[in-house]
Amino acid sequence: MSAEKQKITLLGTGTCQLQEHRTSSSVLVELEDVLFVYDIGRGTTLRLAALDLKQDDIQYIVLSHFHPDHVSDLVPLLHASCWSRTDPRSKDLHIYGPMGLEVQIMRLMSLFGPDELKRDTFNVFLHEIREDRFTIGKRNFSFVHLPPVNNRGLKFEANGKQYAFTGDSNFHQQEIDFLKGVDFAVVDAGHPTDDEVVQLAVETQVPTMILSHLYRETDEGEIRQKARHLGYKGELIVGKDLMSFKIGS
What we know:
By secondary structure, this protein is an alpha/beta fold. It has one domain: Metallo-beta-lactamase, Chain A (4-Layer Sandwich). Helices cover 24% and strands 27% of the residues. It contains 7 helices and 14 strands. Helix 6 crosses helix 7 (220-229). 40% of the residues are buried. The mean pLDDT is 95.
């Protein structure tokens, strides 16, 4: 994949709330050697379809944790993988996640019977990450516990820059440490307050911080002004579904 086509796309910037303009949490990452989805909450599959991505384009999914608004679209994805008449899956699907992944996914699949979400044309491989790092192909990822839930933040390097996603998290020292030295981050801005989001930006100085997982409507101009007043030198952006960012720019 050429450098100009490598990008990060916000598939869903919302939460469990049913909103027309925000679907649940999901980020699409397109790198030169791998394409993957981080979290796959409600509405993700429709966003993927809007981007004209096919079943076989999605071979890797990373789950931060197992709340429904981060995993629920595994069901329509797998159902379409098996039964779509225009785009059935022929390539294997790999799902990565924290401890408990195997139990949670098998419970989910068992709800619909053994034949509804599985076919002989492809396999589903579950990778339960027991350490704080893993690999997809030759690419390394950090997979760091961020309280308060059994949530894992994801971090990786691409084109000389560091990228990070926090999943569900809150404002605490672990998140500050996780984001220090990062060039681009998609952070949970729904659980922290606006003042805590500002403090996170100031203490980490992430050059580009995207605010996602939003319960409330956040005034981008106001939060930027507060952060700059306190010494933040980067850019705070309130994320919107299908917003894209070039990797390495």
